[in-house]
Design a protein that fits this description.
globular, alpha+beta, two-stranded parallel sheet
Length: 151
């Protein structure tokens, strides 16, 4: 594996994170097959505004993203992504470790159901993470920001 650095997400990372999260959900999640781009954006915006973003890069090119994790806490992970050519190189594990993600139950407001023909939740479980789909979490963020009467 190439040497990586994990840094805090920056404003310049936002477009890439939104684009790859949206594309991955549409291609790899049974829950998002027929969801409009506008609806996906409504789910992603509150997560992007309130969750933490960690990004994996190389020291030689700190602007080229190899992967990222969007998370709220050690038990709430919205999304993890690693570029296909860098998968199975430990980058996902390094991102989860940097986010202090605990093994066991992990709440996920966004979830990929299959990756390369594999059942992604089972793959995660084989690594010690039991994914719990919690699609209402972005709505709770919106309710907290705008007040319950606007949710």
């Amino acid at each position: 594996m190439a040497r990586i650095v994990i840094r805090d997400g920056e404003d310049g990372d936002r477009a890439y994170v939104l684009d790859t999260t949206h594309k991955t959900l549409l291609e790899s999640s049974a829950y998002f097959y027929h969801v409009s781009p506008q609806t996906v954006r409504l789910l992603l915006d509150p997560i992007m505004a309130t969750y933490k973003l960690l990004v994996a890069v190389t020291p030689e090119d700190p602007t080229s993203i190899l992967g990222y994790v969007l998370f709220e806490s050690s038990i709430v992970v919205a999304f993890i992504y690693v570029r296909s050519q860098f998968r199975k190189a430990g980058i996902g594990r390094a991102l989860l470790d940097a986010a202090d993600t605990l093994k066991g139950d992990v709440s996920c407001p966004l979830i990929v159901t299959s990756m390369y023909g594999q059942n992604f939740p089972r793959l995660a479980q084989s690594k010690g993470y039991k994914l719990r789909f919690r699609p209402y979490l972005p709505l709770e963020i919106s309710a907290a920001i705008y007040g319950a009467s606007h949710a």
